[in-house]
Amino acid sequence: MRTRVARLYQKGDLRIETAAVAAPGPGEVLLKMAAAGICGSDLHYYQDGGFGPVRVREPIIPGHEASGTVSQAGEGVDLKAGTLVAVNPSQPCGHCEYCQKNMPIHCLDMRFMGSAMRLPHEQGMFREWMVVPAKQCFAVGAATTAAEAACSEPLSVCLHAASRAGDITGKRVLVTGAGPIGALMVAVASYHGASEIVVTDLADAALDRARAMGASRTVNVSKNAQAFAEYEAGKGYFDLVFECSAAAPAIRGAIAAIRPRGTIVQVGVTGDVPIPLNAIVGKELQLHGTQRFHEEFGTAVELISSRKIDVRPIISHSLPLEQAAAAFILAGDRAAACKVQLTF
Protein backbone atom coordinates (compact mmCIF):
# COMPACT_ATOMS: atom_id res chain seq x y z
CA MET A 1 0.00 0.00 0.00
CA ARG A 2 1.17 3.53 -0.77
CA THR A 3 0.11 6.93 0.48
CA ARG A 4 0.45 10.50 -0.70
CA VAL A 5 2.61 12.70 1.54
CA ALA A 6 3.75 16.31 1.70
CA ARG A 7 7.56 16.21 1.92
CA LEU A 8 9.77 19.24 2.51
CA TYR A 9 13.21 19.13 0.89
CA GLN A 10 14.48 22.55 1.85
CA LYS A 11 13.22 26.08 2.42
CA GLY A 12 10.19 26.65 0.18
CA ASP A 13 10.49 23.26 -1.54
CA LEU A 14 7.42 21.24 -0.52
CA ARG A 15 6.43 18.37 -2.81
CA ILE A 16 3.49 15.97 -2.94
CA GLU A 17 4.93 12.46 -3.31
CA THR A 18 4.06 8.88 -2.45
CA ALA A 19 5.50 6.60 0.22
CA ALA A 20 4.99 3.01 1.31
CA VAL A 21 2.68 2.15 4.22
CA ALA A 22 3.22 -1.06 6.18
CA ALA A 23 0.51 -3.09 7.85
CA PRO A 24 0.08 -2.35 11.57
CA GLY A 25 2.03 -4.64 13.88
CA PRO A 26 1.21 -5.60 17.48
CA GLY A 27 0.20 -2.53 19.47
CA GLU A 28 -0.18 -0.40 16.34
CA VAL A 29 -3.03 1.04 14.27
CA LEU A 30 -3.35 2.06 10.65
CA LEU A 31 -4.97 5.49 10.46
CA LYS A 32 -6.71 7.18 7.57
CA MET A 33 -5.61 10.70 8.42
CA ALA A 34 -8.37 13.29 8.65
CA ALA A 35 -6.98 16.75 9.53
CA ALA A 36 -3.56 18.14 10.40
CA GLY A 37 -2.68 21.66 11.48
CA ILE A 38 0.28 23.71 10.30
CA CYS A 39 2.22 24.70 13.41
CA GLY A 40 4.63 27.60 13.82
CA SER A 41 7.59 25.22 13.71
CA ASP A 42 6.31 23.68 10.45
CA LEU A 43 6.04 27.20 9.07
CA HIS A 44 9.61 27.99 10.14
CA TYR A 45 10.81 24.86 8.34
CA TYR A 46 9.03 25.98 5.17
CA GLN A 47 9.88 29.70 5.32
CA ASP A 48 13.37 29.62 6.82
CA GLY A 49 14.61 26.03 6.64
CA GLY A 50 14.40 25.75 10.44
CA PHE A 51 14.45 27.78 13.61
CA GLY A 52 17.36 28.49 15.94
CA PRO A 53 19.77 25.53 15.80
CA VAL A 54 17.11 23.14 14.42
CA ARG A 55 17.54 22.93 10.64
CA VAL A 56 16.06 20.77 7.89
CA ARG A 57 19.04 18.67 6.84
CA GLU A 58 17.24 15.98 4.82
CA PRO A 59 13.75 15.54 3.34
CA ILE A 60 11.07 15.55 6.05
CA ILE A 61 7.33 15.04 6.20
CA PRO A 62 6.22 17.81 8.59
CA GLY A 63 3.13 17.79 10.78
CA HIS A 64 2.65 16.98 14.45
CA GLU A 65 -0.91 18.07 15.25
CA ALA A 66 -3.37 15.71 13.62
CA SER A 67 -6.38 13.45 13.84
CA GLY A 68 -7.29 10.30 11.96
CA THR A 69 -9.74 7.43 11.81
CA VAL A 70 -8.73 3.90 12.76
CA SER A 71 -8.80 1.70 9.66
CA GLN A 72 -7.04 -1.41 10.95
CA ALA A 73 -5.80 -2.43 14.39
CA GLY A 74 -2.85 -4.66 15.13
CA GLU A 75 -2.74 -7.44 17.68
CA GLY A 76 -3.58 -6.40 21.24
CA VAL A 77 -5.24 -3.11 20.29
CA ASP A 78 -8.71 -2.27 21.66
CA LEU A 79 -9.45 0.66 19.32
CA LYS A 80 -12.16 -0.27 16.87
CA ALA A 81 -12.23 0.55 13.16
CA GLY A 82 -14.01 3.81 12.48
CA THR A 83 -12.90 5.48 15.74
CA LEU A 84 -11.74 9.10 15.33
CA VAL A 85 -8.59 9.73 17.35
CA ALA A 86 -6.25 12.59 18.14
CA VAL A 87 -2.61 11.56 17.73
CA ASN A 88 -0.05 12.43 20.39
CA PRO A 89 3.19 13.04 18.43
CA SER A 90 5.44 12.73 21.49
CA GLN A 91 7.37 9.49 22.01
CA PRO A 92 9.67 9.65 25.07
CA CYS A 93 11.91 6.61 25.50
CA GLY A 94 10.62 5.74 28.99
CA HIS A 95 13.94 4.65 30.48
CA CYS A 96 16.45 7.53 30.38
CA GLU A 97 17.37 9.63 33.40
CA TYR A 98 14.61 12.18 32.88
CA CYS A 99 11.92 9.64 32.02
CA GLN A 100 12.81 7.82 35.25
CA LYS A 101 12.47 11.12 37.14
CA ASN A 102 8.95 11.59 35.69
CA MET A 103 10.19 14.38 33.41
CA PRO A 104 9.51 12.74 30.02
CA ILE A 105 9.30 16.13 28.29
CA HIS A 106 13.09 16.26 28.75
CA CYS A 107 13.72 12.71 27.51
CA LEU A 108 17.28 12.24 26.27
CA ASP A 109 16.06 10.08 23.37
CA MET A 110 12.79 11.84 22.50
CA ARG A 111 11.10 11.08 19.23
CA PHE A 112 8.62 13.75 18.18
CA MET A 113 6.75 13.35 14.91
CA GLY A 114 7.60 15.90 12.25
CA SER A 115 10.68 17.20 14.05
CA ALA A 116 14.03 17.99 12.41
CA MET A 117 15.81 18.01 15.77
CA ARG A 118 17.11 14.46 15.33
CA LEU A 119 19.00 13.03 12.38
CA PRO A 120 17.53 11.08 10.68
CA HIS A 121 14.54 13.40 11.11
CA GLU A 122 11.34 12.11 12.68
CA GLN A 123 8.74 11.97 9.93
CA GLY A 124 5.42 13.67 10.60
CA MET A 125 1.73 13.41 9.80
CA PHE A 126 1.11 15.34 6.59
CA ARG A 127 0.05 12.17 4.77
CA GLU A 128 -3.12 10.29 3.91
CA TRP A 129 -2.30 7.02 5.70
CA MET A 130 0.11 6.14 8.48
CA VAL A 131 0.81 3.52 11.13
CA VAL A 132 1.25 4.75 14.70
CA PRO A 133 1.47 3.13 18.14
CA ALA A 134 -2.02 2.72 19.56
CA LYS A 135 -0.90 4.18 22.90
CA GLN A 136 -0.49 7.53 21.13
CA CYS A 137 -4.08 7.53 19.87
CA PHE A 138 -6.81 9.14 21.99
CA ALA A 139 -10.44 8.59 21.03
CA VAL A 140 -12.44 11.82 20.88
CA GLY A 141 -16.09 12.52 21.68
CA ALA A 142 -18.80 11.49 19.26
CA ALA A 143 -19.69 15.11 18.41
CA THR A 144 -16.07 16.19 17.97
CA THR A 145 -14.96 17.01 14.45
CA ALA A 146 -11.66 15.95 12.94
CA ALA A 147 -10.61 19.62 12.77
CA GLU A 148 -11.25 20.08 16.49
CA ALA A 149 -9.47 16.83 17.38
CA ALA A 150 -6.38 18.00 15.47
CA CYS A 151 -6.14 20.96 17.88
CA SER A 152 -5.39 18.64 20.81
CA GLU A 153 -1.64 19.04 20.41
CA PRO A 154 -1.48 22.87 20.48
CA LEU A 155 -3.99 22.94 23.34
CA SER A 156 -1.72 20.52 25.22
CA VAL A 157 1.16 22.99 24.80
CA CYS A 158 -0.97 25.69 26.42
CA LEU A 159 -2.15 23.44 29.25
CA HIS A 160 1.45 22.63 30.08
CA ALA A 161 2.36 26.32 29.97
CA ALA A 162 -0.45 26.97 32.45
CA SER A 163 0.96 24.30 34.76
CA ARG A 164 4.25 26.24 34.84
CA ALA A 165 2.43 29.37 35.99
CA GLY A 166 1.02 28.11 39.28
CA ASP A 167 -2.47 29.08 40.42
CA ILE A 168 -4.16 31.30 37.83
CA THR A 169 -7.41 31.82 39.72
CA GLY A 170 -8.21 35.50 40.13
CA LYS A 171 -5.01 36.62 38.37
CA ARG A 172 -4.67 39.54 35.96
CA VAL A 173 -3.18 37.90 32.88
CA LEU A 174 -1.40 39.33 29.86
CA VAL A 175 -1.01 37.25 26.70
CA THR A 176 1.45 38.70 24.19
CA GLY A 177 0.95 37.39 20.67
CA ALA A 178 -2.47 36.26 19.41
CA GLY A 179 -1.53 33.54 16.97
CA PRO A 180 -3.02 30.06 17.43
CA ILE A 181 -1.04 29.39 20.62
CA GLY A 182 -1.79 32.82 22.06
CA ALA A 183 -5.50 32.42 21.30
CA LEU A 184 -5.57 28.98 22.93
CA MET A 185 -3.62 30.41 25.87
CA VAL A 186 -6.46 32.89 26.37
CA ALA A 187 -8.96 30.02 26.53
CA VAL A 188 -6.80 28.09 29.00
CA ALA A 189 -6.31 31.13 31.26
CA SER A 190 -10.07 31.69 31.23
CA TYR A 191 -10.72 28.01 31.99
CA HIS A 192 -8.38 28.26 34.98
CA GLY A 193 -10.22 31.24 36.42
CA ALA A 194 -8.20 34.32 35.45
CA SER A 195 -10.04 37.49 36.49
CA GLU A 196 -8.86 39.51 33.49
CA ILE A 197 -7.08 38.62 30.25
CA VAL A 198 -5.51 41.32 28.09
CA VAL A 199 -4.02 40.35 24.73
CA THR A 200 -1.57 42.29 22.58
CA ASP A 201 -0.66 41.78 18.94
CA LEU A 202 0.14 43.72 15.77
CA ALA A 203 -2.77 42.35 13.70
CA ASP A 204 -6.44 43.20 14.19
CA ALA A 205 -7.59 39.85 12.76
CA ALA A 206 -5.56 37.97 15.37
CA LEU A 207 -6.97 40.14 18.14
CA ASP A 208 -10.52 39.49 16.91
CA ARG A 209 -9.92 35.77 17.43
CA ALA A 210 -8.45 36.39 20.87
CA ARG A 211 -11.71 38.07 21.87
CA ALA A 212 -13.64 35.10 20.48
CA MET A 213 -11.54 32.86 22.74
CA GLY A 214 -12.34 34.90 25.85
CA ALA A 215 -10.02 37.93 26.04
CA SER A 216 -11.29 40.74 28.27
CA ARG A 217 -9.49 43.39 26.23
CA THR A 218 -7.20 43.47 23.21
CA VAL A 219 -4.60 46.08 22.24
CA ASN A 220 -3.06 46.51 18.82
CA VAL A 221 0.31 47.83 19.95
CA SER A 222 1.29 48.85 16.43
CA LYS A 223 -1.62 51.29 16.31
CA ASN A 224 -2.17 52.21 19.94
CA ALA A 225 0.99 51.70 21.98
CA GLN A 226 -0.17 54.33 24.46
CA ALA A 227 -3.16 52.20 25.40
CA PHE A 228 -0.78 49.50 26.59
CA ALA A 229 1.55 51.93 28.32
CA GLU A 230 -1.09 52.54 31.01
CA TYR A 231 -0.36 49.05 32.32
CA GLU A 232 3.21 50.05 33.17
CA ALA A 233 2.16 52.57 35.83
CA GLY A 234 2.95 51.82 39.49
CA LYS A 235 5.57 49.16 38.64
CA GLY A 236 3.11 47.20 36.54
CA TYR A 237 -0.43 45.84 36.45
CA PHE A 238 -0.38 42.14 35.57
CA ASP A 239 0.22 39.23 37.92
CA LEU A 240 1.04 36.76 35.17
CA VAL A 241 2.23 36.92 31.56
CA PHE A 242 2.12 34.23 28.91
CA GLU A 243 4.60 35.49 26.29
CA CYS A 244 3.61 33.80 23.03
CA SER A 245 5.25 36.01 20.41
CA ALA A 246 9.00 35.52 21.07
CA ALA A 247 9.41 39.11 19.84
CA ALA A 248 11.91 41.23 21.77
CA PRO A 249 9.61 44.31 21.97
CA ALA A 250 6.79 42.18 23.37
CA ILE A 251 9.08 40.62 25.96
CA ARG A 252 10.33 44.03 27.06
CA GLY A 253 6.77 45.33 27.23
CA ALA A 254 5.68 42.37 29.31
CA ILE A 255 8.49 42.94 31.80
CA ALA A 256 7.50 46.59 32.09
CA ALA A 257 3.81 45.79 32.61
CA ILE A 258 4.09 42.98 35.16
CA ARG A 259 3.91 43.61 38.89
CA PRO A 260 6.85 42.93 41.20
CA ARG A 261 7.21 39.22 41.97
CA GLY A 262 4.96 38.38 39.05
CA THR A 263 5.47 35.37 36.80
CA ILE A 264 6.33 35.33 33.10
CA VAL A 265 5.91 32.05 31.24
CA GLN A 266 7.87 32.13 27.99
CA VAL A 267 5.82 30.13 25.49
CA GLY A 268 7.05 31.54 22.17
CA VAL A 269 10.31 30.23 20.73
CA THR A 270 12.95 32.06 18.71
CA GLY A 271 16.70 32.55 18.62
CA ASP A 272 18.60 34.74 21.05
CA VAL A 273 16.93 38.02 22.03
CA PRO A 274 18.12 40.75 24.41
CA ILE A 275 16.09 41.14 27.60
CA PRO A 276 16.38 43.72 30.42
CA LEU A 277 17.87 41.60 33.18
CA ASN A 278 18.03 44.60 35.48
CA ALA A 279 14.23 44.85 35.42
CA ILE A 280 13.82 41.11 36.08
CA VAL A 281 16.16 41.43 39.07
CA GLY A 282 14.70 44.72 40.30
CA LYS A 283 11.12 43.45 40.19
CA GLU A 284 12.08 40.01 41.54
CA LEU A 285 10.26 38.38 38.66
CA GLN A 286 9.92 34.68 38.05
CA LEU A 287 10.72 33.71 34.46
CA HIS A 288 9.68 30.20 33.46
CA GLY A 289 10.29 28.33 30.25
CA THR A 290 7.75 25.80 29.00
CA GLN A 291 8.22 23.02 26.47
CA ARG A 292 5.72 20.72 24.83
CA PHE A 293 3.54 18.55 27.14
CA HIS A 294 3.02 15.02 28.41
CA GLU A 295 0.00 14.05 30.50
CA GLU A 296 -1.74 17.22 29.30
CA PHE A 297 -2.55 15.58 25.94
CA GLY A 298 -5.27 13.39 27.41
CA THR A 299 -6.67 16.40 29.27
CA ALA A 300 -6.72 18.42 26.04
CA VAL A 301 -8.71 15.70 24.28
CA GLU A 302 -11.24 15.65 27.14
CA LEU A 303 -11.61 19.45 27.15
CA ILE A 304 -12.09 19.58 23.38
CA SER A 305 -14.49 16.64 23.37
CA SER A 306 -16.65 18.28 26.06
CA ARG A 307 -16.20 21.74 24.50
CA LYS A 308 -15.24 23.07 27.91
CA ILE A 309 -12.61 24.69 25.72
CA ASP A 310 -14.02 25.47 22.28
CA VAL A 311 -11.19 25.51 19.74
CA ARG A 312 -13.37 26.20 16.70
CA PRO A 313 -12.75 29.99 16.56
CA ILE A 314 -9.05 29.49 15.80
CA ILE A 315 -9.60 27.14 12.83
CA SER A 316 -9.59 29.55 9.91
CA HIS A 317 -8.86 27.44 6.81
CA SER A 318 -8.87 23.82 5.62
CA LEU A 319 -7.15 22.87 2.37
CA PRO A 320 -6.66 19.44 0.76
CA LEU A 321 -3.25 17.78 0.82
CA GLU A 322 -2.56 18.54 -2.83
CA GLN A 323 -2.70 22.27 -1.95
CA ALA A 324 -0.14 21.92 0.86
CA ALA A 325 2.22 24.58 -0.54
CA ALA A 326 -0.65 27.06 -0.83
CA ALA A 327 -1.69 26.18 2.72
CA PHE A 328 1.78 27.01 4.02
CA ILE A 329 1.75 30.36 2.23
CA LEU A 330 -1.68 31.11 3.68
CA ALA A 331 -0.56 30.11 7.18
CA GLY A 332 2.18 32.72 6.92
CA ASP A 333 -0.36 35.50 6.34
CA ARG A 334 -1.43 36.51 9.84
CA ALA A 335 -3.88 39.08 8.49
CA ALA A 336 -5.83 36.33 6.73
CA ALA A 337 -5.29 33.12 8.68
CA CYS A 338 -4.98 31.63 12.14
CA LYS A 339 -4.92 27.84 12.27
CA VAL A 340 -4.62 26.41 8.76
CA GLN A 341 -5.23 22.69 8.45
CA LEU A 342 -4.65 20.13 5.73
CA THR A 343 -7.38 17.62 5.06
CA PHE A 344 -7.00 14.13 3.65
TrEMBL record:
Keyword Metal-binding: yes
Cofactor: Zn(2+)
Superkingdom as given in the UniProt entry: Bacteria
Family of this protein: Belongs to the zinc-containing alcohol dehydrogenase family.
Coiled coil: none
Transport is among the record's keywords: no
Matching InterPro entries: ADH-like_C (IPR013149), ADH-like_N (IPR013154), ADH_Zn_CS (IPR002328), ER (IPR020843), GroES-like_sf (IPR011032), NAD(P)-bd_dom_sf (IPR036291)
Name the UniProt record assigns to this protein: L-idonate 5-dehydrogenase
Domain Enoyl reductase (ER): 12-342
Pfam families: ADH_N, ADH_zinc_N
UniProt cross-references to SMART domains, sorted A to Z: PKS_ER
Entry keyword set: Metal-binding, Oxidoreductase, Plasmid, Zinc
Gene3D superfamilies: Medium-chain alcohol dehydrogenases, catalytic domain, NAD(P)-binding Rossmann-like Domain
